[in-house]
């Protein structure tokens, strides 16, 4: 894969943090910054809260008891997003 060189200006505290991390991890500055940019650009990963997990479990249990029942998706979504 082709690479391009860029210049980045960092405030002193951030530069020191990068230097500390790279030395601690035995990595190059370039490698560390590439990983940070990749992580920043990733699609955020969703992690449901305990309350959201409880509601999902409850809904699945209700569906097991009554497979033809259920809740309209929009109603569920509205209730789910209130958490």
Structural account:
The protein is mainly α and 83 residues long. The chain has two domains: 12-41, no CATH class; 50-81, no CATH class. Helix content is 63%, strand content 0%. The protein contains four helices and no strands. It has helices spanning 12-25, 29-41, 50-65, 73-81. The longest helix has 16 residues, at 50-65. The two termini are 44 Å apart.
SSE arrangement:
Elements: H1 12-25, H2 29-41, H3 50-65, H4 73-81
Domain Ribbon-helix-helix protein CopG: 6-42
InterPro entries: Arc_rbn_hlx_hlx, CopG, Ribbon_hlx_hlx
Protein name: Ribbon-helix-helix protein, CopG family
Number of domains: 2
Question: How is the main sheet built?
Answer: none
Q: H/E order of the elements?
A: HHHH
Strand proportion, as a percent range, falls in under 5%
Number of helices: 4
Unreliable stretches covering 5 or more consecutive residues:
none
Look at the structure and give the mean pLDDT: 87
Strand tally is 0
Please state the structural category. mainly alpha
Give the termini distance in whole angstroms: 44 Å
Helical proportion, percent range: 55-70%
> What is the overall shape?
elongated
Rg computed from alpha carbons, rounded to a whole number of angstroms: 23 Å
């Amino acid at each position: 894969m082709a690479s391009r060189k860029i210049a980045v200006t960092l405030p002193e505290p951030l530069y020191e943090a990068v230097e500390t991390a790279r030395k601690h991890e035995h990595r190059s500055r370039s490698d560390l910054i590439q990983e940070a940019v990749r992580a920043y650009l990733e699609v955020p990963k969703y992690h449901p809260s305990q309350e959201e997990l409880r509601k999902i479990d409850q809904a699945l249990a209700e569906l097991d008891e009554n497979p033809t029942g259920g809740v309209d998706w929009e109603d569920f979504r509205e209730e789910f997003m209130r958490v």
